[in-house]
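pipeline: protein-struct stage 2 | run 1193 | HSF-type DNA-binding domain-containing protein
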Amino acid sequence: MNAPVFLQKTYDMLECCPSEVAEWSKDGRSFVVKQTKQFETSMLPQFFKHNNFASFARQLRFYGFEKSKIHDARFGDVSETGQSWWLFQHPKFLRDDPAKMVSIRRKTCTEAVTTKWEAGEVNELKHRLESLQSTMSSLSSKISALTAAVHTYAAEEMDLLPASKKLKTSPKIEENVTFSPKTVEDGPSLDYGCNFNLDEAFPDVDEHLFASLLDMELPLVC
């Protein structure tokens, strides 16, 4: 039985890869990629039909590899350069015992997801989802109630608006009478203008009497 082609190519790539780009760990139980950009441009195209580090890492995960970001002095001068590297490891992917790769099998997408998310985590996510759905339902009910209240208030305001207009009191209009009496006979023609509020000036005089006075041609001094 042969090892998966992808794993065999990965092993061969590490054997000829410059140590400043990628290399095995000192114990040979894992390997680290130091320069992802150079790894993409100089190494991946030689062994695979792409130059995408993310795709390479994803394939390793499907084969059960663990990926972690490291900053460890055991990989040379990493502590001096201050760079972080990507470490990959699998219990059966070993530098000094490549024959064990034969037993490594690629997982399906479903198996990979099941391995990544344990039952407890899945249940916790379900509980959170149910809680969010309950909260959303409660908020939706409150929004509906507020919307109905706003519509009711607006309708009441529209009903009250005509009534409020009717309640407005019109300003009192005073009835003014203007007199332009004639002068005495043979006297100079003078024009006098006077404004009277009849109700206020003569509260006890009958309105018919006023009418008679207005018809008389008598001089009236203002």
